[in-house]
Design goal:
The chain is an all-alpha fold. It is built from ten helices and three strands, in the order E-H-H-E-H-H-H-E-H-H-H-H-H. It has a three-stranded mixed beta sheet with strand order 2-1-3.
Length: 319
């Protein structure tokens, strides 16, 4: 039953209904969600510990990777535990303030994910195009300032969206047909004018995503020009191999994001709501799951560190 504040029509809580039309499949859907979440937590925590304690990984590229891993942990932990509570225990209620906090962390972490991928593209650009100036250009203070600026950019753009959403009058029920508090799913429960929410949300998405994609595209265009101009085939292969893991991370992050963005606006009723919600969850879960796996397999330094640790543990355990 909808509980409304008498003065401002703010609901005391919302009901997250999960995946509409697939309620009977919630238990089965929870298993891949749980498996991917465990892989994401173990993989990203392992990467963070490895970068923290391995002196050979105290380099710019791995500092950015640590930022990406921390962002991935926040992104999946913000949504998956609540989704599993819905699937397993039918704990669907979430307070209005908790909903806004979850919404803020979701959009801040996804914006940070995009920003860190952009910083990593710039890092690869400097490393390949200006190798002799790499250490001078990307110092530890510069890395820290770049990470802080990326966070502040996202947070300052999304905080107004939370206030706009909080001020809306809600009188269309309190059931959200989603596994988490998506901005538009919440705004559509309002009986007020949500045009500002729609326009501002679209502007923020374009400002963050559009700017980051533009920087990534320009960086890799310059990288490609530099690599093609190299005379040695081995040098070209080595340069390309240093970018492989990052390109995979970009694909895992932006592919479901593009699907969500365009299907909501141009898909209409051709795509079922359940498909939208599953892809929206994959968008928040796939990058955290795959990034540590890809970087662990494709990055030689990380792979060598892991193999060395495993070999040392075997020697220690052997009689």
């Amino acid at each position: 039953m909808l509980m409304l504040n008498q003065t401002d029509m703010t609901p005391a809580s919302f009901i997250l209904n999960g995946i509409p039309g697939l309620e009977h499949m919630h238990l089965w859907i929870s298993f891949p969600f749980c498996t991917m979440y465990v892989i994401a937590v173990v993989g990203n925590c392992g990467l963070l510990c490895l970068i923290r304690y391995e002196d050979s990984l105290h380099r710019t590229m791995y500092y950015f990777l640590a930022m990406l891993s921390f962002t991935d942990l926040v992104m999946c932990t913000t949504t998956v535990p609540k989704a599993l509570c819905i699937f397993w225990f039918h704990l669907k209620e979430i307070s209005f303030d908790e909903c806004l906090v979850q919404m803020f962390f979701i959009y801040t972490s996804t914006g940070m994910e995009s920003g860190v991928l952009m910083l990593m593209a710039l890092d690869r650009y400097v490393a390949i195009c200006y190798p002799l100036r790499y250490s001078a250009l990307l110092t530890n203070p510069i890395i820290a300032k770049a990470g802080l600026a990326t966070f502040l950019r996202v947070a300052l753009l999304f905080i107004p969206l939370m206030f706009i959403t909080k001020k809306l009058p809600y009188c269309r029920g309190n059931i959200i047909y989603h596994t988490y508090c998506d901005h538009m799913s919440v705004a559509k429960l309002s009986c007020g004018n949500i045009k500002v929410n729609v326009i501002y949300g679209l502007m923020v998405a374009l400002l963050i995503g559009g700017f980051d994609i533009l920087c990534i595209t320009i960086s890799y265009t310059m990288i490609l020009r530099t690599v093609v101009s190299l005379s040695s085939a081995d040098a070209r292969q080595k340069a390309f191999s240093t970018c492989t893991a990052h390109i995979c991370a970009i694909v895992f992050s932006y592919s479901p994001a593009f699907f969500c963005f365009f299907s909501h606006r141009f898909g209409g009723h051709m795509i079922p709501a359940s498909c939208h919600i599953i892809v929206a969850n994959i968008y928040l879960l796939l990058p955290p799951t795959m990034n540590p796996v890809v970087y662990g397999v494709k990055t030689k330094q990380i792979r060598d560190c892991v193999l060395r640790i495993l070999s040392c543990s075997k020697i220690t355990k052997s009689p």
